[in-house]
Amino acid sequence: MDITVDQRSVIVFDLDDTLYNEITYLQSAYREIAKKIDPKKWRQLFATMFSLYRCSKNVFDFLAQEYNCDKDELLSTYRNHKPEIALFHGALPLLKNIREKSGKIGLITDGRSQTQRAKLQALGIQDLFDIIIISEEFGSEKPDIRNYLAIAEAFPDHTYCYIADNIRKDFIAPNQLGWETICLLDNGLNIHHSAHLYMTPKHLPSKFVTSLTELRVV
């Protein structure tokens, strides 16, 4: 799929499950926590924690009860650890190709400032964006249209394209604004997996891709 990019283009991305799989952030945090709690048998503890998560159990309640851990400290480690995560195949070439065509690159992501910026740093892409909108810093979350209007106000009289994954909330506002919208399909590992509940015109993107490698900058 071709994306036309020039100096009047703004290509905006979501972060979690769009540029990398968010589940790998959770796994990274769980490893960090497991190593702190039981350095000798951390792999077994990690396996238990991840299994509990996949069974929709409260992992922190389990750790607090079985290991006498403080849940606030566990949550702090989860949110503030240095993540071990990696970009999706094709993400970095796509970002660089947009840059080479003189396009602007934006990010709209929900989450805590420190957490989301730690992810960007771990992925090595924080300096590739011309504008970054993080919900905690900005004061509102998707699908609030203000998060998207901030992009348009920063770069007026441009064309806009939003690439994201969450059909429930990602495309409502950019659809209203007339942006091009592209959904990266769930690869089976996405945190949010309720897309079937939102197959309505206001939620759906204009296009779908199965991989970022399908997007070609022209």
UniProtKB/TrEMBL annotation:
Domain of life: Bacteria
Keywords: Hydrolase, Magnesium, Metal-binding
Biological process (GO), any one: small molecule metabolic process
Transmembrane segments: none
The keyword rRNA processing is annotated on this UniProt entry: no
Cofactor(s) named in the record: Mg(2+)
Molecular-function annotations in GO: metal ion binding; phosphatase activity
Pfam families: HAD_2
PANTHER family hit by this protein: GLYCERALDEHYDE 3-PHOSPHATE PHOSPHATASE, N-ACYLNEURAMINATE-9-PHOSPHATASE
NCBIfam families for this protein: HAD-SF-IA-v1
Protein name: Putative hydrolase of the HAD superfamily
Protein source organism: Pseudozobellia thermophila
